[in-house]
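Go through this chain for my students:
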Amino acid sequence: MGNSKFFKGVILGAVAGGLLSLLDKTTRQEVGTTLKNSGTTITRYSKNPQMLADTSKDVYEKLRTTADQVSKDIQFISEKVNEIKGMTPQVKEMIEETKETFEDSSEAYKETFSDHPSNELNSGEEDSQPVASSFKGY
């Protein structure tokens, strides 16, 4: 019995709220326009049920196509993320190899330029390391 009072109260509250909102002129006009358009649409579909079926099929096909495309896009993105995850160790290894190559080259340049103190690049300064200094930090 308590449930029936609850639902009656909810329905009465909804009706009262709806009626109060109709006190506003703009709201009344919008509700009237919407009801007229809805009535026209219902009448059109009731006179031509095949049109309703065709429209429903079109909407269904559009939704299905969109869902398929979204599914393919998600799968594509997922594959690319997995590729990136797989590439991360390779990229890290390439960076390490590049770093080691620069460090080796840096040492070779240091040796080359320190063996020839009369070299123009050294310009008489023993602390100067023109090429090797650009590779520090790699």
